[in-house]
Design goal:
This protein is an alpha+beta fold. The chain is built from six helices and 14 strands. The chain is globular, with a radius of gyration of 18 Å. The structure holds zinc ion. Zinc ion (ZN) binds next to strand 6.
Length: about 240
């Protein structure tokens, strides 16, 4: 089945705001910048007939960060209770529901070992990790309802590049579900992926197409080169970032 995932402009801004806050701003009790953030994707989903095949549409209207998640530099631990509570709240007020989960992969420039850091981000950094896949598998196994045999997951990978570089911004080559974009000197990669389990219970990627009018047009992002300022390492600190306008 084909899965179309549409990210609204406001959901994109919320995702980037919360991801960058976790990436740059020092959080209480943490000695470094660049911690992971977790949250839920809220909107609605339905099915369509397309060329005699059924496709699934996911419309992400907004994003809600999980303030209860444990946020660490190399992983984050969401609380399952948080997703079910948010789902109930969304349904109380609207037709919305929680339709997926989302987390970040923050990389500090100095901590990427590879010489070609952009190449690392494109080929590895913006992919889900083995631990992510194990976690998603467990989620799918726990989904008992018949219509919940698909799981939508998103990731935003980010790193502080030395300089502004918008080369190859746009859809990542050969991948319909990833956008590469620049915010000032930050390089970001937004990936949306629907997963399911095969007959043997192994996790598999479903064909997923990411749509985002803001990223498709670069309406605002291009402007950030002039307005956004710069994310840099604080003087005399190796792993603490700051935003300089
Ligand atoms: Zn991950």
């Amino acid at each position: 089945m084909k899965h179309y995932v549409e990210v609204s402009d406001q959901a994109l801004v919320q995702i980037v705001m919360n991801s960058l806050e976790a990436f740059v701003v020092l959080h209480k009790g943490r000695k470094r910048s660049g911690i992971e953030m977790h949250g839920v994707l809220v909107g609605y989903k339905d099915e369509h007939e397309e060329d005699t095949q059924t496709s699934k549409q996911y419309k992400i209207d907004f994003f809600s960060p999980d303030t209860s998640a444990v946020m660490m530099p190399d992983h984050c631990i969401p609380q399952a209770e948080s997703e079910s509570l948010k789902n109930e709240v969304a349904r109380c007020f609207s037709d919305f529901e929680v339709i997926g989960a989302f987390h970040t992969h923050p990389y500090l420039y100095t901590e990427i070992k590879q010489d070609d850091k952009l190449d690392f981000m494109r080929k590895e950094g913006c992919h889900f990790s083995d631990e992510d896949m194990d976690f998603f598998t467990a989620k799918l196994l726990n989904n008992s309802q018949e219509d919940e045999n698909y799981q939508l997951e998103g990731v935003l990978a980010v790193f502080n590049s030395k300089k502004y570089n918008d080369k190859r911004d746009g859809r990542l080559e050969d991948e319909d579900n990833v956008f590469e974009f620049s915010v000032g000197n930050l390089k970001c990669f937004l990936r949306m992926q629907v997963f399911s389990l095969d007959e043997e219970g192994a996790i598999q990627e479903e064909e997923t197409i990411l749509k985002c009018s803001c990223l498709e047009k670069f309406k605002y992002i291009g402007k950030s080169f002039f307005d956004f300022g710069r994310i840099k390492v604080k003087d005399n600190k190796k792993v603490i970032l700051e935003h300089k306008v």
